[in-house]
Amino acid sequence: MQKQPTIRDVAQAAGVSVAVVSRVLNPGSGPVAAATRSRVNDVMKNLGYHPRTAARELKYGPPTTLGLLLADVSNPFFARLADQVVQEAHSRGIQVLLMTTQEDDQLESERLGTLIERRVSGIIATPTGNNVAIWKQLQDLGTDVVFVDRSIPSLPEVDVVSIDNFESARSATALLAAHGHRRIGIISGPASSTTGRDRIAGYRQAMEAAGLEQDELLIRHAAFRGPAGGDAASALLSIEDPPTALVVANTAQVTEVLRRLSHAGIDIPGTLSVIVFDDSPWTELMTPALTIVRQPIDLLARHSVQLALANTQGKSSGKPTVIRVAAELVERSSVARLQFSK
Amino acid sequence: MQKQPTIRDVAQAAGVSVAVVSRVLNPGSGPVAAATRSRVNDVMKNLGYHPRTAARELKYGPPTTLGLLLADVSNPFFARLADQVVQEAHSRGIQVLLMTTQEDDQLESERLGTLIERRVSGIIATPTGNNVAIWKQLQDLGTDVVFVDRSIPSLPEVDVVSIDNFESARSATALLAAHGHRRIGIISGPASSTTGRDRIAGYRQAMEAAGLEQDELLIRHAAFRGPAGGDAASALLSIEDPPTALVVANTAQVTEVLRRLSHAGIDIPGTLSVIVFDDSPWTELMTPALTIVRQPIDLLARHSVQLALANTQGKSSGKPTVIRVAAELVERSSVARLQFSK
DNA sequence: AAATAAAAGTGTACCGGTTCCACTTATTTT
DNA sequence: AAAATAAGTGGAACCGGTACACTTTTATTT
Q1: Are residues A158 and A100 in the same domain?
Q2: How confident is the model at residue B317 (pLDDT cuts 50, 70, 90)?
Q3: Domain match, B291 and B302 both
Q4: Angle at A147 between CA A144 and CA A149, to 5 degrees
Q5: For residues A26 and A72, is the Cβ–Cβ distance under 8 A?
Q6: Which range among A172-181, B197-206, B307-316 shows the weakest confidence by mean pLDDT?
Q7: For residue A193, is it within any domain?
Q8: Do B236 and B318 fall within a single domain?
Q9: B217-270 pLDDT per residue, tens
Q10: Which domain holds residue B32?
Q11: CATH number where B222 lies
Q12: Residues 53-72 (B) with a CB less than 8 A from some CB of A
């Protein structure tokens, strides 16, 4: 392990002052003779010099790091989001500190503490819904906070990027209704989440528009984690007059719900038609290929990163920005046309 | 946006020196009277003070950040790895800087540059295979480098954590042979990768042990990214005497290969038996449920993090550590028993 | 050729913590 | 009661860059 050269070592070796080396390091910060510049560059290469980000950050807490706080990354939806966010950030020279909450507000609060100490310029997060005080503090500190996929109603001043949950659920439900389904179930996120509520609202509107009876038994909320999703699916199937179609609108639990359906030996779409909120590659590989609501993850990522860096670039507009991108209903083979039997 | 209080603000407000505040901040670094401690703590809370990591890092480049450099995170295997690494790191109070290379060595080199400037204490990476000089430099600088899943033969002094690729491929192939298959194909990673080579070697050994003819046409290498995986699958199926069984041993391209098989209308396991290296949840949901080689991602993550922090903790043992964890062959329904027809 | 302007380069305070060392004030030891 | 030891606190240098104010060199103008 060699001792790390500093800017002063470089300056001395090149026979110039540290100020000049700093200028070479930051083009545009001041004039440097071409000959000097190349000499300094040579010395830096020979010495294996690399400026330390920590030292640079000390002067002005710079917009070079961004926090990405997700529920977990094993979920394909979040994984793809993380992938896109990282790519988008990298393309702007920004680094990403990845953290997970496991939907645990205690863990979330710890992570937020770390992000504060690191003075990240922005945070992109899927909030658990608690820790409102800390989120507020973060904003007061000048950190750009962006909620993605979900939001917290009691924090209306935070930027939000998500799909149009209402419209997505509405159109998915409408599609099922148009195929003759009258008993349509929906499994959505917790009622405390905006995501969950909006999707249910869209579902209701579609049911009403189709003139279908709204049975509260057909509406299920499931927590983002744990067995709740599977339980909801099982419960839905065991009611007296079970649904012939199901919208799985809890993005985080799609796999869990499908596993339960599969184990129950449900024939899709024979017994049950299904539309899910998840556009993972494998939804196409299943038998039958699943009809899905495709979330434009790249757009979610791009807008999130943009907003998370907005204030930094002086583009802060007093009001919080809410971006709703359109989701796409991709029809495949998991929805059956129901014959009129009654 | 409020101005951020510094340690001096706290000191002044509490009527003590900065040294005392620092001691309160770092318990064990020196004596502080209980009364003073609580007074300082109160002031910190009132002022909303949070120490800046950047300033702290300046003194001693500390082991508080770890770089995770993956090919991409949209791939479920890497996503789950990232998830576990982050959890493991968090449990040790370490933060994770996530980066992706897209398997592009140019991008990789840029990312490595950033990691050097940040003086991360350790790096966990799936290397592209190039940039050997930079990896060496990283190590000289005292950074703990750990390759996970793959390695680079020309860098034997780097720690490696992976599954036992040879044995995994051998046992998967042996299972197929035991089911009466004689024409067994394999799609593995590029020949330049250790992963790819080891798996092929395991395959060869199993073929030989079973007394089966080794046809080079049955062995395909596919790059980790791009359409190569799918092309390899198509090519395999169109040879004169096509395989009746296939080992998809290119973890990164499993989905791509399966998609191609699905589109080609191949009946699994009727026409083709399949074993894949991927234990994503959805492999169980497919029809038929896929027989898989399950990689213990949690173990890979745990060992990686441990090694990446080893030197920091003074546990550096001159020699590089190579950890091979056992993978598990999970039999499900995608392998058919072949009747002897010849 | 003198005057003026622009370019190149230097010295040093500063960012916000940490830590060594010196110093003062209790507490023990003999 | 004097000396030795420990506890509590403060002063200031330091980490490695950045940037401002200023001096020196070179180029341009008339």
Answers
A1: yes
A2: low
A3: no
A4: 155
A5: no
A6: B307-316
A7: yes
A8: no
A9: 999 999 999 899 999 999 999 999 999 999 999 999 999 999 999 989 999 999
A10: 7-51
A11: 3.40.50.2300
A12: 53-55, 57-58, 61, 68, 72
Q: Establish if B259 belongs to a structural domain.
A: yes
- B308: which 2 tokens? 């990446």
* Residues A145 and A195 grouped into a single domain: no
Residue A145 and residue A159: Cα distance in Å, rounded?
A: 7
The SS3 assignment for A155 reads: coil
Strand, helix or coil for residue B310: coil
How many domains does chain A contain in total?
A: 3
Find chain A residues with C-beta within 8 A of B262's C-beta: 284-285
Q: Any chain B CB within 8 A of the CB of A81?
A: no
- Is strand C less than 7 A from the beta carbon of B242? no
Q: Out of B53, B58, B73, name the one closest to residue A73 (CB).
A: B73
**β partners of residue A95:** A65
Interface of A with B in 243-282 (CB under 8 A): 255, 258-259, 262, 280-282
Tokens of B274: 């399949």
Inter-chain touch B140–A98, beta carbons under 8 Å: no
Residue B139, amino acid: Q
B226 strand D contact, CB < 7 Å: no
In a domain, B240, yes or no: yes
> Is the pLDDT at A205 greater than 70, yes or no?
yes
Tell whether B77 and B150 lie within a shared domain. yes
Residue nearest to nucleotide D26 (CA to C1'): A33
Question: Residue B59: inside a domain, yes or no?
Answer: no
Looking up residue A14, the CATH number of its domain turns out to be 1.10.260.40
Residue with tokens 């024939």: A267
Going by pLDDT thresholds of 50, 70 and 90, the confidence category of residue A192 is: confident
The CA distance from A326 to B3, in Å, is 39
Is the domain of B94 the same as that of B172? no
Q: Which of B55, B95, B137 sits opposite A48 (nearest CB)?
A: B137
Pair (B150, B101) in one structural domain = yes
